[in-house]
Each structure stands twice: as C-alpha cells, then as structure tokens.
Write a structure and sequence with these properties.
Largest sheet: 7 strands, mixed
Distance between the termini: 50 Å
Strand order of the largest sheet: 3-7-1-14-11-12-13
CATH architecture of the domain at 32-128 and 200-253 and 257-289: Alpha-Beta Complex
Number of helices: 17
Shape: globular
CATH topology of the domain at 32-128 and 200-253 and 257-289: Aldehyde Oxidoreductase, domain 3
CATH class of the domain at 32-128 and 200-253 and 257-289: Alpha Beta
Radius of gyration: 27 Å
Number of strands: 30
Helix content: 25-40%
C-alpha cells in the first residue's frame, strides 16, 4: 500500500537518531564516566557443578588499588529472577554452571581488578554434572535444585514428580489415540537444535552510583527501565522510589537484555566502597554466562490420511534451560514456542507436553521469538517428511491443512482475520518454487509460522510548547529498531504537523512515564497507541481554545491540514491555538495517556521459501535466495519494516547453517567471535519481501507486527530445501557441510 498524499504514514523516514549514532554523540552504558568511578570484575566458576568448601580473599583485599570485594557471604542471600527466583547474586555453597559468579571486586582500574581476581583462592569439590536434559529428567538423576518447590513464582503446573523441571505446559485436543487409529500413515521424527547467542554488538554493562540521599542511580544495558527498577528494588531490598534508571542507548539486544545481570553487584560494591562502580562483561563472559537461546530436543508422532489430511499429532518438547530459570520473564516461566509444536495446522486430535529442564549448562533466556525458531524448525521439517511419506507436494499438504477463518489450530486457539493462506501464496509467488531448476542439486523448501501481537501497557507524556513544537517524553528504549522514528511519525500524522515539529525526549524513570519497554514486538502497538491517544487529547483541548478565539461552537471544530476550522471560516493555525493556551496557562501544555491491552485475538503470519545449492562432494550449502511474506497491516515506515525483516532473516540464516555455542563437559568451547560464527555481508542470499498491508491490526493506523517471527521459518525452509536438493534430511541445527556430507555418505 502506498502512502496517502500528504501523509507521513507509509513514508520511508530516516532514523531520527542516525546522525547522533554515527557521530558518536549518544551515550551507551559502556561510555558512562562518573567522578571517582571504579571498575568491577567478577570471579567465575571453572566448574559446571561443584561445592564451594572455602573462599580465601585476604590477599586480594590487601592488593593496592582494591576498594571493595564481596563474596556470597558478604551480601544478603537473595534469589533473583525476572520471574522465577532461583539465581543467587553470588554463589555461596554450590556452583551450577561454568561461569557462575563466585566473587566480585572493585578497583581503581580494570587491570588491578583482574589481578585481584587471580589472588582469590576458592576450594571447590567438583561434582558430576548433569548436561543432558533427558538424563536430568530421569528418576535416578540427582536434584540440582532440591528447594525448587519453594522457589518464588515456580509455575503451579510443576510437580515434585517432575525431576529437575522448572516449567511445564500441556495441551490436549480431541482424542489422539482415536486419531492414530484413523490414520493411514504414522510419521515419527526426533529433532534437536543448538544453543545460540543473541550476538549483539554491545555486551552487558552496568554503572551504579549512590547519591547523598541514598538514591541508587543505574546506567545499564537493558530494554525495560521500569521492569529492571522493580526487580532491583526487590533484589536490593530498597523502596522502588529509591532507584533511578538513567537513560542510555542500547547497542542491540534481541531479547537478551531484560535482566539485572551485574547491576546488584555494582550496588553492593558501591555501597562498600562509597564510590560509583562500573562493570562491563567481556565477550568471553557473554558467551559463557549470558542468557543464550534454549537448545531443544523434540519428538513428534503424527497420523495422516492418504489424501494428506492430518488427523493426530503428539509432541514431547524438552528445552535445556541450563542451571537457572531466572532469565525467563513470562508468568508460567515458559517459552512461547512451546505452544507452536502443532503449528498453524488444523489437527483435531493433539497432545503436546512441553518442559524446561535444569541442567549444569549455561542458563538460557529469551532471544527473538523465544522458543519459536527451534520448534518451527522441527515441525516444518516434519511436515515435509509427512508430505514425502504420502507422496504429496509439501505446498499442497500445507494448503490442505492450514487453518481457515473460524477454525481452531492444534491447541484450540481460534484467530481473527486469519491471513496464513494469503501469506503462503505470496511467498511462493515471490520465489522460484515449482519452476524448472537450472542445474542439478538445487533445492527449494518452505516453512510457515504464526506469532501473537504483543500486549501489555504503555504511557506517553506529550508536551506542546509555544510556537506549536511538540515533545514526546518517553521511557521507551530504542535497541536499533527505529522506535523513536516511528513515534515521531505517529504523533506528527495525528496532529497533522510537519515531522520537524515533533521531537522525542527519552528520560530517566523519575521523569518519563511508565512503560513496559521492549518486548514481544509490542512497541508500535502499545507505545505508538499511547502516543497517538495523547495527541488526540491535545487535539480535543486545542479545539476548545480555537473555538474560544473565534467564538465558534466547540463541538463542531475540526483539525484539518494543521489548522482548526469550522465551515468556511478563517482557520486557526495549530500554533496560534497552542500560543493562546500556553499564554493562558503560563507554560507548556501537557497531555498524558495510558494504553493497555493484554490480549489481541489476532496473530501475525509469515511464510518463507528458500532456494539452495548443495555441493555433493563437500556437503557445502549455498543459500541462493529467500522469499518471505508477512501480513503486516499498514506499514508506518517501510524502511524500518524492511530493516527488521532483513535483520531477522540474517539471524535465521545464522541459526540455520552456522551458529552454535559448542559445549563440552559443560564448558563453552568457542566464547568469542573468532570461533562463534555469525553471517557477514558476504553470506547473504538474495532477499525478496512481500507485505500484505490489507490485513488491519491493533497498532496505530492498522498495523500488525513483523519484527520477531521474521526469522522463525528460515531454518526449516533451508532444511527442506536441502532435502529437496540432495534427498537427505538433517534433523539438527546448525545445518553444516559436515552434517550434509555425513548424511550423503550414509
């Protein structure tokens, strides 16, 4: 859909923060410098599982330049977490993964802090680690968290009989056993995915300063200022009003920067030393002790008729949660991808059991579309195997079984305005699917997915100054997706003003209204709507001022082309009405709005077709093109939407063919970008995008969401294309040349 004449909606507006970023004028957490600031560092466990017998930090405390040092015995024993509270600030009696924090030190410079860590002596008693989630669930496995049933916010679905489980969800639709008896074929499959990292450019960083009034000021690399403020208040046992989250830019986050990380340690070190403390994780620490994407083990059993109709489906979904569940923020401490084990298909008889399991691996957390790329890789690969078993084209099998308007999906959800069929056909139309292949060993594969539209609450404060200049005071961060640019467009369009009359001021939590931060592709929906509502409030009040100036009936005044009008009378320019109101009130006008919507009965859909070429001699996979389609609704800014999808496709490509945190004996073997490979510009295939803008959603001007699920179908589409090219089915990610070669070699 093209932009309407004179409208800012649909325009390719450049990022508002672009100049500041490229000139180095913006403040990132790692750039914070405060008078008297000292540097903090963590001592981390070398063992994946061990008891701590004794810690001797005497030599480290005596080192010149050390100003503070804490162990688990020096801070209150508090278990923390975004939802499930199971992670100690510092380990006391036991460490549960290689990389867990054991002590922290603050010193005059980073080198002294590192030297101090080397002087701390820890007496460990190594224990046999549990590294396989399937083994961890077995009755004979030792309990890694014996007190789990008493943890705060443990989901009520978890029972003592569930060994080393901290999250469980189950779904039952129809009668699966009756469905299997009805089936002509039963297809089974087991799939696994690797642990991957968000790979943002900026590592976690936090600076904490305690002022003379005892207020705690925090500069941190995180995406939810108010959420972290609340969590820190609980952790530090101080009133929430005592904590101020100062605003900083984010150097990318992809779901991984919604937790406290080292901020509590900075606080205790600052309290002990009386000086501001800054801690920044190295990338080695990020890879070994961040909160990467959960690895998956999943088993399917599916019944299908000879005509391709799916009649029964079972899925056992097991995510390796690592040593702690603290980095998962959802109320059920779950991953949304669990519910996608039946996909977008109409399956009348379905059972899904999904678990997140404690192991002695690195604790996992949220990454873009949490749990969905893993499950979708498995399910959409499995769908192609079902098509092969019954002799159908995979496209025809999907056409037969995808849900239609008014039908329930595999877990009983009925969506409104279902556009999956249109999205699938658009992706196929934009690809080479079904066309003659120019040479051997070229394959084409597809995958489809759904994702909810994020809900929650957001507030906006609009300030209008004399002269008609508009300022939005917002607490919404921007992690690179263009949120502030979008907000300018929404406000300018609503008020019918030129874009340069609107600016965004992002402030700390003392000034900015409460906001849920970045989560679940909800920023345009929630924050955009709150900003639009505030602008509409301004219009209603300014209509009154214009009517008073002209002696018009207030209820008949309209805003048109940046002025207030009534019939054929001379209009009152926006800035004139504002000027009158500002003079009467003695200062800028302020309009506050709050928008809340927890549930949206719509889903967003994506479909992708990948084309690959496989070298049978080496197994090398060359991804030639990816065609993707989305029911986006009306795009506020096509440039930003394209950037979101291009970035997601590149992440999906990395997940598919190269990314893996390799773990051996509980230790990450490739904790750096020299060995942890992500795609570069040379790896990119041709990308083709289609947007269906006639699919209205709840976001301002009828938009839906595009950001997260754009990467979800990519791994399965590539795996299915490999199978089409050379006839081998890979069931684990990444889809490397070694695996392809091994499969071809039998």
């Amino acid at each position: 859909m093209l932009a309407m004449p004179g409208s800012l909606i649909g325009q390719r507006v450049p990022r508002v923060e672009g100049v500041e970023k490229v000139t180095g004028a913006v403040l990132y957490p790692a750039n914070v410098r405060l008078p008297g600031m000292v540097w903090g560092k963590c001592l981390r466990s070398p063992y994946p599982y061990a008891r701590i017998r004794h810690i001797d930090a005497a030599r480290a405390r005596r080192l010149p330049g050390v100003v503070a040092l804490i162990t688990g015995q020096d801070v209150p024993y508090t278990l923390v977490g975004r939802r499930l509270q199971d992670l100690p600030i510092l380990a006391r009696d036991v460490v549960r993964f290689a990389g867990e924090r054991v002590a922290a030190v603050a010193a005059e410079d980073p080198d002294i802090a590192e030297q101090a860590l080397e002087l701390i002596e820890v007496d460990y008693q190594p224990l046999e680690p549990l590294l396989d989630p399937l083994r961890a669930m077995s009755p004979e496995a030792p309990l890694l968290h014996p007190e789990v049933m008493g943890y705060v916010n443990l989901p009520p679905t978890v029972t003592p009989e569930m060994r080393n489980v901290h999250s469980y969800q189950g779904w039952r639709i129809g009668d699966p056993q009756a469905g299997f008896r009805e089936a002509d074929e039963i297809v089974e499959g087991v799939y696994t995915t690797a642990m991957t990292h968000q790979a943002y450019i900026e590592p976690h960083s936090a600076t904490v300063a305690i002022d003379a009034d005892g207020r705690v000021h925090v500069w941190a690399a995180q995406k939810q200022p108010y959420g972290i403020k609340e969590l820190l208040a609980q952790t530090l046992r101080v009133p929430e009003s005592q904590i101020v989250m100062e605003y900083c830019r984010l150097g990318g986050e992809f779901g991984g920067k919604g937790n406290q990380m080292d901020a509590p340690l900075c606080y205790y070190l600052a309290k002990q030393s009386g000086r501001p403390v800054r801690m920044s994780m190295t990338y080695t620490e990020e890879f070994m002790a961040g909160n990467p994407r959960h690895p998956l083990h999943i088993r399917f059993r599916t019944g299908v008729k000879r005509d391709g109709t799916l009649v029964a489906h079972e899925a056992d979904v097991i995510f390796d949660g690592g040593a702690y569940g603290a980095f998962v923020p959802t109320p059920e401490v779950t991953l949304n991808g669990m519910a996608k084990a039946g996909g977008v298909y109409r399956i009348p008889n379905c059972r899904i059991d999904a678990y997140i399991v404690y192991t002695n691996n690195e604790p996992a957390g949220f990454m873009r579309a949490p749990g969905e790329p893993q499950v979708n890789f498995a399910l959409e690969s499995h769908i192609d195997e079902i098509a092969r078993r019954v002799g159908m084209d995979p496209l025809d099998l999907r056409r037969r079984n995808i849900v239609r308007e008014g039908e329930a999906n595999s877990i009983g959800i009925v969506w409104k305005d279902v556009r999956i069929r249109e999205v699938l056909e658009a992706a196929v139309a934009g690809s080479n699917y079904g066309k003659p292949k120019p040479r051997p060993h070229i394959g084409r594969g597809m995958a489809v997915c759904d994702r909810h539209i994020g809900g929650g609450a957001s507030e906006a404060l609009l300030r209008i100054h004399e002269g008609g200049h508009v300022e939005l005071i917002s607490g919404t961060p921007d992690a690179g997706q263009g949120a502030h640019t979008m907000l300018r467009q929404v406000i300018a369009e609503t008020l019918m003003l030129p874009l340069d009359r609107v600016r965004i001021s992002v402030a700390n939590t003392d000034v900015a209204p409460r906001d849920g931060g970045l989560r679940a592709s909800s920023t345009t929906h929630l924050t955009g709507t709150a900003a639009m509502l505030a602008a509409r409030k301004a219009i209603e009040q300014l209509k009154g001022w214009a009517a008073e100036l002209k002696g018009w009936p207030e209820g008949e005044v309209a805003l048109k082309d940046g002025a207030f009008t009534l019939g054929e009378g001379e209009p009152v320019p926006f800035e004139v009405a504002v000027g009158e109101a500002v003079r009467r009130r003695g200062g800028p006008l302020e309009f506050h709005a709050r928008y809340e919507r927890e549930h949206v009965p719509q889903a967003c859909f994506a479909a992708q077709v990948a084309e690959v070429e496989v070298d049978r001699q080496t197994g090398q996979v060359n991804v030639l093109s990816i065609s993707t389609a989305h029911d986006s609704g009306r795009l506020i800014n096509p440039l930003l939407a394209e950037g979101q999808i291009e970035g997601a496709l590149i992440q999906g490509l990395g997940f598919s063919i190269m990314e893996e945190l390799r773990v051996e004996d509980g230790r990450v073997l490739n904790p750096n970008f020299g060995e942890y490979k992500i795609p570069t510009i040379r790896d990119l295939p041709e990308l083709r995008m289609t947007f269906l803008e006639d699919a209205p959603g709840p976001a301002p001007f009828g938009g839906r969401a595009v950001a997260e699920h754009s990467l979800t179908p990519t791994p399965a589409a590539i795996a299915n294309a490999i199978a089409d090219a050379v006839g081998v089915r890979l069931t684990s990610t990444p889809l490397t040349a070694e695996k392809v070669y091994g499969a071809l070699s039998g």
